[in-house]
Amino acid sequence: MQFSGFRSVIGSMWSVDDEVAQEVVSAFYGNLVDGSGRLDCTRAAMALHKAVKKLRRNNVPLEQQIVFVHIGV
Prior knowledge:
The chain is of the alpha+beta class. It is built from 3 helices and 2 strands; from the N terminus they run E-H-H-H-E.
């Protein structure tokens, strides 16, 4: 994806449950929005970090939390 021109890429290194992926995506995009309501790709790493922290609070098994990776800005 980065070779195609995307500045930030979020992926999974291993398989992940659909429910967990849906929870991460929802929390990720909620944290990616800046104060003006626009998506800000420079917040991608922080948004993923907060999304995974939410998984911890929801008692998702560790092996489902550690699969996500951010590469880029």
